[in-house]
Specification:
Elements (H helix, E strand, L loop, with lengths): L15 E7 L2 E6 L6 E6 L3 H38 L6 H5 L17 H7 L4 E11 L11 E7 L2 E5 L18 E6 L1 H6 L4 E7 L7 E8 L1 H6 L5 E4 L1 E2 L13 E8 L2 H12 L12 E2 L13 E2 L6 E3 L14 E2 L1 H8 L5 E6 L4 E11 L16 E7 L2 E4 L18 E6 L6 E7 L9 H6 L4 E8 L8 E8 L4 H6 L5 E10 L2 H8 L6 E5 L2 H12 L9 H13 L4 H12 L5 E5 L2 E5 L1 H15 L4 H20 L12 H10 L13 H44 L12 H37 L4 H18 L4 H16 L3 H10 L6 H43 L3 E5 L16 E4 L7 E9 L12 H26 L20 H12 L7 E4 L3
Parallel strand pairs: 13-20, 17-21, 17-31
Antiparallel strand pairs: 1-2, 2-3, 4-7, 4-12, 5-6, 5-8, 8-9, 9-11, 10-12, 14-15, 15-16, 18-21, 18-25, 19-20, 19-22, 22-23, 24-25, 24-30, 26-29, 27-28, 31-32
Helix pairs in contact: 10-16, 12-18, 15-19, 23-24
Length: about 1000
Amino acid sequence: MDEHYMEHYSYRLEDVGIHRIHGRTCEMKFGSGPETVVRDIKFEAEKDALLFERCLADVQRRVQERAKKLAERYRELKKMQNEAPSTPGSISRAIGLSATTPSAVKSPVRDTLAVLEEGGMDVRILIDIVSAINLPTVDLFSADAYVVVRLGSREVHRTKVVHNTINPIWTVETKSLFLLELTSEDFFASTGGLSFVIKDYDRVGRNDIIGRVVVPHEELLKGKGDRIVYDIVPEKPPKSKLKQKHSRLVLRFREGTADDVDFMRSLNDHSGKIGIYSNETLLPPRPPDSKMLKRMTKGSGESALHRVKPYPDPAAPDRTKWMTTKELQREAEKESRGWVEAGSGKLGKLYVEVIGCDGLPNMDLNLNPRDKTDAFVCLVYEDVVVNTDVIGDTLKPRWMPWCCRAFVFDISHPQSNLFLGVFDYDSPIAPSQLVARTVSDIHDPIGRVAINLGHYLADTIYNLKIPIYLREEDAVKGVSRGTISLRLRMEWDQPRQAIIVAALPPPPMYVSCAQRIHWSAAHYTVEGLTDEASFSLGALTKYIAELQGYEELTPYFADAALNLLLWRGSYSFKMCGKPVSVPLHSMTAFAWGILVAWDFNFFPAFLVFAIGWGFLAMNQHERQNPSPWHMPRDYWSICYNFLLEKKMSVSIEVNQHKEAFDKFTEETEKRKAAFEEERKLMKVHSMELQEELSGDIKTAGSNEMDIQTKKENLVSGFVDNLNLLKPILYPAQLELAKVVRITRICVSVVRWDEPYLAWWITTTSFLMSFLMIWIPWSFIIRWILRVAVFVFLGPWMAIYDRCFLRRKNQSPEQRAEEIKEKVKAKYLNVTATASSNRTRMERAMKLKSLKKYLYGKYLVNVPHFCVDGIPTNPLFDSSARPFENEESVTMKIVDRKYGQNLTGDMIPTREFQLDVKKKEEDNTRILSRWRLRRRKKPTDVRSDNENEPLLGGHNGGAGVDYKSMQEDLMDSDRTVEIGGTR
């Protein structure tokens, strides 16, 4: 009977149905959804058609019974798994499904037993359609792909279209994530598993099916979120094997949790929206109150009273409504009352208070003489952006202790820098700003500061006054736009752990903003006005000039070499009250020279030692600067912190060593001027010599003279040159920008602007050098050379040539096969590299899409290393003093802004969620500890008052415990008071 039938189509059982039977003709329905087709099947007799109908119904009934049994068994095993943890893959094995990939069933957070008792959706699988690889070009040159997911004949999900690519990547925006949530009966009723149909979108006509992927039930149940690549089965076989492409679909799936349900529900509720959680991470500037018809000053001279901005002290409004200039300064220097905690780190805390600004330019020049700069400060640290209140109509703003000016940043990496930008606030609804908004979408920038925190010690209160610059060129010229006053302090939970973390590469930090105006302010605060992405001859010239500027370091290296060779003093100290200078570096070089000259085994150890020696010498050279604000941290102080894990502090007075610094700066400038004059003289003499010899050179090079007049047009020539050279200069500008950035990082490390990284390089070099001293290098090198000579230069190489290299006896087919294997090996290597790059691209695009959905579509990259061209050294008006534990005060946290660090793979977990879970765990731990103490206490408590309750009593210890428990279990949104430091 079988030889009379040929297979033309193949359908799953749930996609087959009988529409009607008339006579010996059976009208059947095949497929599902838009691909449903109706076909007539003719049998030899009517009884055969009826017999086929009964057989099909019987098979479908058996399938339904099997699905019910599998569902019941699955529900039983889920109950057992909830009561006692099962081994990986036990459910799929126990219900009779064969596994194709070794995976483990990941238990959800939500209580599965409760779901089963409720009779709800007991099968919950989170699925991520990651990407498709190497799709066929259905259109002219590309494809517009989307995926339809079906379980049986029911469509459960559909992605959006990714246009004009054969390698699409689906993200949250294009609906890559979905939650398969249904009953176990419905899940097992589909015999063919979950079907992913890849289609090509056409504006006109029917959408073409590219292919499909079917994932069996067992793989869905055993998935744990790994990236799995499936081959796409084409809908139509290729006409030629040469045009055949191996298309693939990348999926990830795992068992869903309660957090996944909440996230998907929120994602569906906020479909098409962006930055739905931006208020968790961004603190925008609070605009000032309306200043219409308000008097700002009363009186004149030093006794003039000024209106306190942004508002008077709520605790004493009458006393703080009007103050003199001195009273404003004294009030601003007091302790802050409300702090905003921000960030996601756990290494330590950075306390920053914005006190005020001086000498700001007037950014609101108009007919109203009272209209002046409305200043606020934007602070960017790691993955958070916060802003102070706006102080209106003043060029010397002072932020009061009761306003938003104090921030506590949680540190995640010790090499992170603090960026501050000062802006003039422009209201989006002000009539005078309507025209400005059509030209610029940023608050008017006044200046910025990048603070390298590696220069500052922990447990020290710094009162800083730092100049602000609009751009890097102004910083080089010394043209500032005022100053900013800060109060700064750092504390480490474990100083040794902070130094260890500094040796690890810092993770990339990106800050997302929902509104472009906030992104523009954060972007200027971090990067300034320089736009490396756009072509600019000025930027190209600046990069070249910066690289040429390193030529000024030549005389310093020459002096260092002379000091080393001539045994000049390099280390100074006092002995019996007299200064003594010891040529320590010359002594070190002499000792190593003797060791290497007498025993060459020490040469590799010397090379490694020279790295740390150079770093240590650079640290000593940089610390010759008498200014405490310009010298880097000492190498030995970091060793002290690492070994003893003790905190160090420093005391710096106002104008400390200012005269010595001015003298040091004057000598340095004289030295630079002398070097520049010498270089100019060399250049002039070289030009004179070249002009003197140019006539002879030209005459020798040509026998003809061109006397034709040349056409000169400066404007057109400049434009033509610009148009012609832009394709060449723009890539050169991008490469120069990379070189300049890398050079700045290297220079900052060598000059100990990154003290922890420089300390690690120095210490590692010394330790490696000490270990390499004991290695017999001459013995190892001698025997390596001997073995190499005997192996590669001996007569047995002729045997190797005849046996392995000569191809005289190979047939053309064998040579072709050998070449094919080599090409295949290269192809596999290229494929592996491409797959790794593809995975990184998928993660980057999905992370960007998630950040866009969670926090906003505007991203700013926050660098860790000191790559800024603007100096951050405070002025000599700054001071520092050690922090004493006795100065501890209560700091009130009035707001919390979380970092934008996302944990998790398929569905991210925000910092806010982690904080809530941590508080719940802490509350549970406190409650259990309290119950344990209550269980240990006797219940027959005797007191004078028989009606006094056991909990909350005045004479028993239980009252104190109950009160502390109540305080610990208060809501997380309340105002938190923590024992602070100052």
